[in-house]
Amino acid sequence: MAEAYIVDAVRTPVGKRGGALAGVHSADLGAHTLAALVERTGIDPGAVDDVILGCCDTIGSQAGDIARTAWLVAGLPDHVPGVTIDRQCGSSQQAVHFAAQGVMSGTQDLVVAGGVQNMSAIPISAAMLVGQQYGFSTPFAESPGWLKRYGDQEVSQFRSAEMIAEKWDISREEMERFALASHERARTAIAEGRFAGQIAPYPLEDGSVLDTDQCPRETSLEKMAGLEPLAPGGRITAAVASQICDGSAALLVASEQAVEEHGLTPRARVVHLSVRGDDPVWMLTGPINATKHALARSGMSIDDIDLFECNEAFASVVLAWMKETGAPHEKVNVNGGGIALGHPIGATGARLMTTLLDELERTGGRFGLQTMCEGGGQANVTIIERLG
User: Fold this and answer.
1) What Å distances lie between residue 175 and 132, 213, 312, CA to CA?
2) From CA 207, how far away is CA 205, in angstroms rounded?
3) Rounded to whole angstroms, how far apart are CA atoms 9 and 27?
4) Which of 26, 36, 212, 377 could form a disulfide with 61 if both were Cys (CB 3.0 to 4.6 A apart)?
5) What pLDDT digit, counting tens, does each position of 83-141 carry?
6) Which residues neighbour 145 within 8 Å (Cβ) at sequence distance 6 or greater?
7) Which residues are catalytic?
8) pTM tops 0.85
């Protein structure tokens, strides 16, 4: 099978909810990283076969196939198509998978993959609720077929996070220590300039430029302990959950032929890509079996991986995943994760890949594994190998 190479990756700074990027139209937010990617790689944008962007809640400013509109807003060629995909939180990681698969199949040579989400403008799950305005019931959980299969029970990420904490005996204090480490790691990464090379600074209307992630906080275990749980008597609080935020990211995936023809220098090779499903009521447990499946299919062990990115939707998700897979915390989310850096759902997969690639290069690691929990009980896994 043909190889798929990651040529480059770029992202916006992540803007906090109601922060610097809140008023930016989603198409412009996506266009920013697409234009930056073309500029950084020096590719002829007319040679791109397709643009694949992840995005959830594709209504309002995110409707109308935002992959296509963002490319056009960036001033790039009309003849290059675009497609928007939704695999919930894994949407832009899946975009990378589809791009790599297109290249591996031999049907495409240059594909742009990424994601965009403005959660300040379009609240999470807005698309699920908009039908109520027209007299429709809420999606899936009230479907007769769903009720017949799974019964009349709450299906939510918050319930899942609580169920995971209980099943894997993860205390509130353990989750708060994990959350604090996420913030500390993120602040250290920012202070040391680890993200500087991967960020395309965003010019704002007031003439200033946003060049730094806005979400990491100065916090403490004492502050976290004072928060009320999201459910009465529960262990999950806002402190151990990912932050609502805004951002975009994009990668260029190329075939060996395209690398040679366009004089490109790839930064990484895609070693493995897969996606697996799990119980949709538990929802957030997907990364556990998906990671085990990916390692088995690739013939690798957990010890072969130098760095991991497991999305911090909630602290309990990553802590349970580490317990089940044996991934050591010192190799997981070493620059912080969604608890500190935010989780712009449709863009997070590409943001994680961008950060993982940079960190492999900074530390000299060879293999990186990325996974994330996704709505419907799904999880993508990507393993990349640093080149050079």
Assistant:
1) 36, 23, 11
2) 5
3) 19
4) 26
5) 999 999 999 999 999 999 999 999 999 999 999 999 999 998 888 777 777 766 667 78
6) none
7) 89, 343, 373
8) yes
